[in-house]
UniProtKB/TrEMBL annotation:
GO biological process, one term: methylation
Entry annotated with the keyword GTP-binding: no
GO molecular function: methyltransferase activity
Keyword match Nucleotide-binding: no
SET domain segment(s): 9-135
Protein name (record): Protein methyltransferase
Keywords from the named record: Methyltransferase, Transferase
Pfam families registered for this protein in UniProt: SET
Coiled coil: none
Residue stretches spanning the membrane: none
Amino acid sequence: MLYPLLSTNPIPLFLSHQTPFKHLTPTPGRGVFATSHIPAKTIIDVCPVLVLGLEENVKHIEHTSLYHYTYNWPTTVPTGQPRTTQAVIFGLGSMFNHSTQNQNIVWERDTRLQIITYRALRDIEAGEELCISYGSHLTFVEADTSAVAAVEEDDGIEQLNQIHID
């Protein structure tokens, strides 16, 4: 069987159909905007992921524009050592823009099921862009850097530990 984990553990896909979204920004680019009120803690999307092999990532993906849409993903090499590779996120997950100041979406990675669940961090009003934090290792200049002190954490864990959802 090609995917034995999936045959015994189906991936719970979910999209809040009561909450329509606009996917294109008013300026060139992409983003996700609420078209109606979204209450805090609402599940926005549950996205399946495609985990890339370490070698595949370094030899191919890092040299393409797709690399800018991938997430760091923990993996273990055959010797048992932990490593970080990249994962392609399907659904809305790769469309959320980054903001440190205006983050209103949090995400939780499930490495066993290979999914990411996105939830509203707070109440979100119609017209607001849905933004997540990409962590402290950005490959671009952050738009709201001037207003926020740079995070000095090596892996962003401290920043994630400060986000709590009941």
